[in-house]
## 1
Amino acid sequence: MTDAPRLHSAYTVRLRPVGDAELQLRYRVVHGYRRAYLMAGDGPALVLIHGIGDSSATWTELIPDLARTHTVIAPDLLGHGASDKPRADYSVAAYANGVRDLLTALGIESATLVGHSLGGGVAMQFAYQFPELTERLILVSAGGVGREVNPVLRLVSLPGAHLMLSALRLPGMRLQVGLAARLMKLLDTDLGQDAQELLTLVDALPDETSRNAFIRTLRAVVDWRGQVVTMLDRAYLTEGMPTMLLWGDRDSVVPVRHAFRAHKAMPGSRLEIFEGAGHFPFHSDPARFVALVEEFTTGTDPADWSLEHWRDLLCEGPITPGRPDDARDRVRERDLREVSERSAT
């Protein structure tokens, strides 16, 4: 591990002090690729996983408060932020493996995972692949619950997306995008709730390498019809794992109805809706977000995983109380039809 240099202009964030030290990016080389991450605090491990096109910078305003009671690790996923951006596997399963490898290198044996958007899908995949390492799940406007996704993301998944994203770097385009974002905000549209975040994502793609990584990541989870992976077929495996869902009721990227669908599919899960918030509820109301995370992590016991329990769940499959088997199968089949493919694992 090496000390982080000052961030270059394409990746500038506002950092707050944590205790007596400034929060800075650190680096680890795993499988030959540099992985950037933020780390602060002491106590039970809390891993914050950002969404597509984003980075650990999205959590910087929350980390000082969360680090009072947790060891907080916020990685830049491969292809994002200050991490390397190779021509590589950017699937959800590969990201889950990457998070596991980074935590192992840092000596973290188990953790509570907080995943936003794509990061929510990565957190769910991590819990599926490595349940013995997962203490709790906190899913924030998570992908992987239904086909619906913002049309802009579907458009970017099409051939020619490189040219479209490159055009955003032309002189004057940043100003036009900024004006459009402010107009959506002034008109009080759902997409306008996340206007500032949209501008940040545009700024996060300054060169061809960044844009290539973004498109590869997007096409692993979205095509012209919408999201192409689902967790609904395995959501029942979270039985016994404390799970909380946090969503903005004006989310224009992943609609809030996905939250209710996931809540129904995940036994014993808790659902919290942020009224008036868009796709980034932790930006809209950071104090409430931090309070909920701290309450949830201190008020629940870590999941007690066992091979026997896992085997029993797999053999029994999902159970819908009060429904005969044929009706249960029809309900599950209907939900699964809303996505195009299942996770490749």
## 2
Amino acid sequence: MNAWAQVADTTGAVLLLLGAAFSLLGAIGMLRLPDVLSRSHAATNPQSLGMLLVLVGVALRLRSGIDLGTLGLIGFFQLLTGPVSSHLVARVAYRTGQVGREGLLFDDLDEQLSAGPPGSGTAPGGRDSS
């Protein structure tokens, strides 16, 4: 085994361990944090970084074209779907009253929800559109 392969394998192992540690921190955050918004943050940010570190570590170990392409697609779709699904869960929790609004610094959805459904004749902010 040449020196470059040994460095790549060692770096890959370190990245695998770091990725596993970030994923573990995200899982602990999901269990320990008190509300839906905090849990959705713990579900996406450390998990996404941990998953990327694991994928880069595996890529450094495998080093073949088809494997790198597959790992790239896995990373792309995970980064595409994870934050979007977490955002939707947080938005549903807000709409169903699971989020304590007094703890929010900014409440941009309050104006949208109080305006009523689109086409109801009420402009944002509760003013009549006529």
## 3
Amino acid sequence: MFISVPAYQFVQTILQRLRAHDTQESCPSLRVVLAVQRRVTASFMKTDVRTLQLRKATRPEPDLVPLYDALGLKPTCGVRKLIS
């Protein structure tokens, strides 16, 4: 229950911002549209036994770009490198 209340408020804030930009999305349709974009992580073993992980988002579908614009978000995230 502790996570469900903030999650509900977060979803309602997103829907409110989208409605302010004349985007008529419901929560179920929003989940379907957003489900196509993924975050991909590739792991590589370096010669010094450390692991290099590169994490990047896939390109957004054309349906996603107006949603990201309405929310003021970048459609693609930058590459994140993790070395452990």
## 4
Amino acid sequence: MPQYAVLIYANDSAHRLDATPEDLEEPNGHGDELAASGAMRAAYAFTPRDLARSVRADGVTTGPFIDAPVAVAGVYVIEANDLDAALAIAATNPAIRGDGGVEVRLVHSGGVVE
């Protein structure tokens, strides 16, 4: 079955180092629902952008690679029969409310190397 990466864009990640269970209830609940549905293959929540470091040819800088109003807050990989099914799953992400959103991309290749 095809796999799709769902990149989550938000003002910033809710997954601060000092986040409380209440802070994470909505994003983690959504992930739990996807896992229970059987569609989820992997999920990664990122820490806020102020903890990011960007590497370029001229060195390392503090912050995200691109300074933008939204940042990648996380990514998950789902299995879906086709793009329409993947879009329907992605449309349930809480990030689509407000200023955030998600990007859905077909995974071409890769996986865990052991």
